[in-house]
Design goal:
The chain has four helices and five strands. The protein is an alpha/beta fold. The protein is globular, with a radius of gyration of 13 Å. The protein starts with a strand and ends with a helix.
Length: 127
């Protein structure tokens, strides 16, 4: 399993990583962190990504547009959006994604988000 985190705040990325490590305890999982979609796209890591966690800020770059492009080019990637701002949740419906949660709810929602993403991945494999 390869998980990519797009998060400009390193502390939030570390927090998310910690919850993921707890979820995947004892499993082989590779994590990649990038502060922006632009940085991620430079490395062409889309091939190595199963689940992509994306914070939504909509300041310097539009994460929703980036996610749309990724899903068009790599439909196998399951995207989990999260944000501090609830109003961004409606924008996520423009993209075929696995889950959305608020940052403040991260600890309570991370397991469900990963479960849903893995379920979608499983369906892709066996369809």
């Amino acid at each position: 399993m390869h998980i990519t985190i797009i998060e400009k705040d390193e502390q939030d990325a570390q927090r998310l990583l910690q919850f993921c490590l707890e979820y995947f305890k004892g499993q082989t999982v590779y994590f990649h962190w990038y502060p922006s979609y632009l940085e991620w796209s430079k490395g062409h890591h889309d091939i190595l990504t199963d689940i992509l966690f994306s914070d939504i800020y909509l300041e310097e770059e539009n994460e929703i547009l980036w996610a749309k492009k990724i899903k068009e080019q790599c439909p196998h990637i399951e995207i989990i959006f999260y944000s501090s701002n609830l109003q961004y949740s409606l924008l996520t419906y423009e993209v075929n994604h696995a889950y959305f949660f608020l940052k403040e709810d991260m600890k309570n929602r991370i397991d469900l988000a990963i479960d849903r993403a893995q379920s979608h991945l499983h369906k892709q494999i066996f369809s």
